Amino acid sequence: MVAEISGSTGRKVTFASISAEAFRAAMLPYAVSQEHVDGITAMLRFHQEGRGPKTSDAVLDVTGARPRSFAEFAREHASSWLP
């Protein structure tokens, strides 16, 4: 995903992997509640463990539209990542 954002914006974007514990500690001062942080941290762990969603035909089945790749999304929304 970092490569797609970099390519669509023309800016160097990097990724730094952090532990779920470090993420949780960094989020606590900004969160609405500890439960909110716990939920977001659980989602991070889920993806870090490789259990994230697999591709499916759900978008096509529900909307009739072809799903977009992240690269397409990044190109269409490049201005969102620019100052």
Can you offer a commentary on this structure?
The chain has helices at 2-9, 20-27, 34-48, 58-63, 70-76. It is mainly alpha-helical and 83 residues long. It has one domain (2-78). The radius of gyration is 16 Å and the shape is extended. This is NmrA-like domain-containing protein. It comes from Sorangium cellulosum (strain So ce56).
Number of strand segments: 0
Radius of gyration based on Cα positions: 16 Å
Order of helices and strands: HHHHH
Number of helices: 5
Q: What is the helical fraction, as a range of percent?
A: 40-55%
Largest sheet: none
Overall, the morphology is extended
Provide the β-strand percentage band: under 5%
Give start-end ranges of low-pLDDT stretches. none
Distance between the termini: 19 Å
Structural class: mainly alpha
Organism: Sorangium cellulosum (strain So ce56)
Protein name: NmrA-like domain-containing protein
For this entry, give a set of tags.
mainly alpha, 83 residues, single chain
Topology summary:
Layout: H1 2-9, H2 20-27, H3 34-48, H4 58-63, H5 70-76
